[in-house]
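Supplementary material to the annual report.
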Amino acid sequence: SYVLTQPPSVSVAPGQTARIPCGGNNIGSKSVHWYQLRPGQAPLLVLYDDSDRPSGIPERLSGSNSGNTATLTISRVEAGDEADYYCQVWDASSDSPWVFGGGTKLTVL
Amino acid sequence: EVQLVESGGALVQPGGSLRLSCAASGFAFSTFAMDWVRQAPGKGLEYVSGITNNGVSTYYADSVKGRFSISRDNSKNTVYLQMGSLRAEDTATYYCARPSGGLQYFDYWGRGTLVTVSS
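Predicted assembly:
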């Protein structure tokens, strides 16, 4: 099965840039999607197809994907960005095609 | 506005059964496949099950195959997850999610409903 690897945590000061990596074998050949999870709230799709933003998602959030790493970048980080972020791909060769990374807790210092 | 509202979560004993419901509104429910994704306490997201828009085809993760059954009632805009032979490792928040992008990602989710399997 395909495996996505994320660091457990990333910390950043307000106003700075946070980068959350998502590693996978040749992930650059796949489309990567990102979700934000806050306690008690519905998960929120924040990026799809590597770098596209759904309606309502601020331009401060961007994405890239190349080689073995996809990255979610949050510019000018705000306190409200503190949440867990999960990457996800669709991999037809996996037991379950909808593969999620382990999640990264973004802490705003 | 798209809304997905899960219900039915509860404390249940190992080996027991439970039925979760997800009521959808704000979109043409009968034209969309629907899925369930779960998150165990302190763990990551795990895909559980999915059903096509007409209910003809279903999909299950290996971890729940043979124990869970997904269904839908398009007249009630509701998708169900019948859970049986529950185990402690099924303890999780269960989210209803709407797939998009050729079913490859999930563009709307509910807030989830908590299932706790414990004696």
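The radius of gyration of chain B is 13 Å.
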